Fold this protein.
Amino acid sequence: MQKYLVIVESPTKAKTISKFLGKEYRVESSFGHVRDLPKSELGVDVEHDFAPRYVVPRANTKRVNALKKLTKDVDIVYFATDEDREGEAISWHLKEVCKVPDEKSKRIAFHEITETAIFHALEHPRNIDVHLVDAQQARRILDRLVGYELSPFLWRKIAKGLSAGRVQSVALRLVVEREREIQQFVAQEYWSIEIDVSKKDVDTKPFRAKLYKRSGVVLDKFSLTHKEAADSIVSQLTGASYHVVDSVKKKTKKTPPPPFITSTLQQEANRKLRFSAKQTMMIAQQLYEGIDTGKGSEGLITYMRTDSVNMAEKFLDEAKSFIQHVYGGEYATGPRRYTTKAKLAQEAHEAIRPTSPQTIPSHVKEYLTEQQYRLYDLIWRRAIGSQMADAEYEATIVDIFASKQAGEEFLFRSSGQVVLFDGFTKVYSIESEEILLPRLTKDEELELHTLEGIQHSTKPPARYSEAGLVKVLESHGIGRPSTYAPTISTLIARNYVQREERRLKPTEIAFLVNDLLVAHFPQIVDYAFTAHMESGLDAIATRLIPISKDTPENIRQKIIADNLRILTSLGDDNRVSGQAKIIIELPKAPQFSEEYGIGEWTPQFVRPYQQVMNKRLGVSDAILSSRYIKGYIDFKEQRYVKNLSFEKSRTGGFRRFLRR
């Protein structure tokens, strides 16, 4: 009889792990999430601490019942979902829905699916991390509050089928605003004066130099803005002689880039392999969950949703030995340890790397698809290269004086670079152009081949590529490793953006949606607010803030305030006239008083607000209350939004009101 049950999310992951374990273990898959907020309603009790109401979708019922039965027949249940917030939440939901008692429940986590990693995890189980679960729940609830209210608003104002979301709408704003920059861009003309020169009496390739100084003044990009100015200088230089006045050589080094995290992997795969973010994550998932390489199925890379650049000491030692053996001692400088830039790197605890340096891409190529091979090769080279020596270069700067008996003084400059030692670039190539300059001495005369004025014009900012959008989202602190690819996929699926020459071009409907959201809900699509909320979720995950009644209310109340504003656009268009008494729900948070035109809840502050309502509605005695809702005033539209069912059921009525 099997004594232990191991539950993972994916059938492929289950198949790989089952090959490492004995007959006492049974490995099953939950096929992802087993329960979620209901699709047909808000599913969040906004009146009682925003408590979520989870349901098991009908499609998952059969699987959940099977797992329930299996958990009862074993001694220990190991929850082995991914070690990030989402994985932790899946484990917690499984434990709750299967009613597994604490004494039978164990949580195991690993960064790679190898036999060593799995047995190490089984030897060091832990409890489910409720802080990670709380952070994931907070994200899910906040996303539901925003999306559940904004999407119907878009259906009413534009068209059905549109969607909005906390991260999605901010990403859309970035794309639309970049397109507007392009549309409003005005090109500016400028000119440069360039020469091709070479050593005299020696068969050497000419090299190019640009005009750098004119009469001792350094020229900037826009010093020459029209053809006449450029032609004048070319005319003055006709018949001039050229000689070297200075030649400076300087040795420089370039350090290897750190191993991949989720965002940089998506950026490089897009740039070098032309993979979309979604495609990159799908292939990385396959490499992580296990590939049969002829010796059984085993994961080739570590977990791919991470914002940490840390690597295990064991891998660092193995990489050093591998580099020494294959490339030589001069390429192995010892372990390099990198520091994570993110303030609270919370997804996983290792960078994306191969599970073993010895698994060279060419050795496993026959077992991989072309796309799997290309991505694995990129990951392997980046990780191994990160542990190699610096690349060394010799940079040369040559200043060339154009002399003529009369006239102004002109100084040209040329820069070159040669590789002295390739270092990490032997494995991981980078864009670095080698410009060879001949060996020159001071006062050496040069032969002129070409003298010309070249016209240029400034170019508008480029549209975001998927890589570029991921990079700017990360720089703003918006979203996390698990959200970048789904966010971009949603923008494309909803026809908000289209791919054009590997760039993201917003559609007409994207402009409509973005402008509407920015006009009505500026806080929701504000970069700083979204990033601040991510920091709050990080703080919950890292135990800095508990999610409870004692949690600071700023995020919660701001969501509520914004949702109250949403309500004003969702009701009936009935106007009020004559003598009527109206009960209004006012926001309860003083920090939002400026937005709503009132201060503390005292008569002297409420009275002017009441007078404004009376005047706009044509009534004499509008009643203000912070306890009950019978209606809501939309001051912009000057209309009264009714809610006649509220008195019968406070909670239910409020929910119905939200959906209208």
